[in-house]
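In this supplementary section we document a worked example of the pipeline. Step one takes a protein sequence of length 84 as its only input; no multiple sequence alignment statistics are reported here. Step two produces a three-dimensional model, which step three serialises into structure tokens for compact storage. The input and output of this example are shown verbatim.
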Amino acid sequence: MKKMTLEICCGTACYVLGANRLLNIENEMPIELRGKAEIKASPCLGLCYKKELKGAPYVKLNGMIIEQATAEKIFERMKELLES
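The serialised model returned by step three reads:
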């Protein structure tokens, strides 16, 4: 499987609500996930205006939106993608 793409929104709301901690996520990754994702900081993913979403910080993993993103949510989704 090719590397997953992990885009972390660094717009003001996302950054203040936790994206700043997600920028170093590779250091926290379980060993089985390390090196499996290309991590990119995005100036803004433009998702704050979508009322159907739950809130910042936002992350896209292979284009799939993760709302109220935490390292644990990201790791869980990464594992799901690896299993599929």
